[in-house]
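assembly run, all chains below
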Amino acid sequence: MSEYYVCTGCALLCDDIEVDIEGNKVATVHAACRKGVARMKGCSDPMECTVDGEKAEVDTAISKAAEILSDAKNPLIFGHGNSSSEAQKRSIALAKKTGAYIDDTSSFCQGPIVEAILQDKIKTCTLDDVRHKADVIIFWGADPSNSHPRHLSRYSYFPRGKERQRGWEEDRTAITIDVRKSDTAVISGDNRFYQIPMGGDAEFMDALVSALSGKVPKTSYGFDVKRILELSGVLKKAKFGVICVGLGLVYSLEELEPLFKLMNKLNEVSDFNLIPMVGQYNMRGFNHDLFEETGYINRVKFNPETGEAEHGAEQSVVEALRNRSVDAALIIGSDPLSSLPLSVSRYLAEIPLITIDPCQNLTATRSTVTIPCALGGVEAGGTAIRMDGVEIEMKKIVDTDKLSDEEILTRITEAI
Amino acid sequence: MGFGQFLAAPEIKLKIVTYRDVFQNTAQETSRFGEDYEKLSAVIKLDPKDMVKLSIKEGETVVVKNAFGKVVVTAQSSGHEEAHQGIAYMVNGPWSNALVPDETGGTGVPKFKDFEATVQGSKGEKVTGIRDIF
Amino acid sequence: MASVMEIYQLLPKTNCKECGKSTCMAFAVDLLARKVKVDDCTPLVNDAKHKANYETLSEMFASVKNVTETGLIVHDEKCIGCGNCVVACPVNVANDPLGAGSGKAPTSDKVIFKVEDGVVKARNVQECRRFGENKILCVACIDTCPTKAIEFV
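ok done. output:
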């Protein structure tokens, strides 16, 4: 033992994982959480290589995939959250070559936050900074105990750090703001849990800004003024604060303005940073890659003639499907028939589909072509970007006959 | 055969809030087609008073539907200390996504966590299988 | 877990002293504290008329067979492997400040908690602050558990 691997169960990318291997399989996983262990041990129903529902050779499947993409006028390439950065770059190149729409799950989750960070509109820090320095940690619309189980123990609440030597009871304050009493809220404690109504986040932010400015904080839902004032007192006194933004907050805000205002105010009176609670292990990597290539983090359509990137809501996976403006799709490391509203994804089943994934999923059951790939971080190495923007190197743990997603994309691109 | 079968089961309109659950997520990593994933995903968590209104008991199945879809899932009491009548919780997954509206106001972001649906006792219907959601 | 009275009711109630205790009630108290085993009561084991009670008691204590000497139980099915207890446990911090104490995978063999296959495993429990001469009622692992997977009986 003592060789450390990276867990790809979520975008925490825990890099302190040891494994015992038996017969080229991961037999025991040390230090990873329950969900991470399930990821690293692999699924019980791997995807098969198929064309039109019949078992096929990988070469045949790759040619068929290339044919579908060349025949399409407006193909869509979607997924990427569970792909290495190397594969994502191949995907972007393939989209450029085929004049495709390209998007990822950030398009309907953490995208706006990651975009604001990459455009320097929001102050951010690394998780290591959080461990070493943070004394006030806010989980807003986030429940890491379920979504990122080791968040509190590795970085945000329990560990000792350079400037946090005395343990969580004395050194740190965890605060949860949410519409329901989540497991994380329970750990924060009743007096540090602020339960707000659905959609009440923006108003709560405005109220906090008022309180931090010495005004009376008011909400239309009559939140206890004393509690808001008390909370603003805690935030004011913070030496190094961090807001961990979950999907609950992202979905509740119609625009990010209230969040910008709160962050600005907090940084007038104290020092606050923000980290998005990214779900899939390399969603942020895709945002960085596409940003580097086009200046946009997601929602791009490449012009087939000029190769120029068009960007906007119209180019998002959801609108492209709603408007039925795509005529074929390549899905990589994602299961949109599970993760998108059925009312939106239903259309996918009407067009030629290609799925690349290690495991069988709903989208695969409706696909013309399915190509199994190596499991990232276990059967294939590469790089990925953690939720806080830090690049993490993943090593291969066991060998496989399967191609990596990077290799599959390269071969499809070459075949076009 | 009771008289009850001739009466329409009571139906109520609820706000659905979706959330994440680490056990369900673990089951998803192992198999999307497994029993565990269905057992942990095809569930709606209700306020006990709403369960009384629906005249259903813990573990019975209910039909949850709106203009966008319909699924049969198992009803459970939420176990939350605070009452939340009119609000029900569903874990994020294909069953909840079957009900998420396609309306986005052109933003590209559906309302995954906040939508309405009606809930009604199913009179013993089986939970919708993952392959049948579609 | 059953109460002392419930355990006592299942014992022979003869105060035979074969176990070394002065009364069956004293045995029941020690049994609950896990200082003695069900099998230490010879009449209960050997006498056919106590068979049903013996089985009930054995089952009662078998169901918590993961109990360590300090009475610590990890309910595997509830544990999510978050490692909060691993990092919060004062003994883990003292014995492995740069590993477990700093939020990382334990690097010392002297830690009490360690996550293996997504579930926390307790070892070296004699080091637990709730154990031994100077024991204190430490609750670091219980309070930090999001799913109430750790219990002391």
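The domain at 111-276 of chain A is CATH 3.40.228.10 (Dimethylsulfoxide Reductase; domain 2).

Chain A has two domains: 45-105+281-375+402-415, 111-276.

not gonna interpret more than that til we talk
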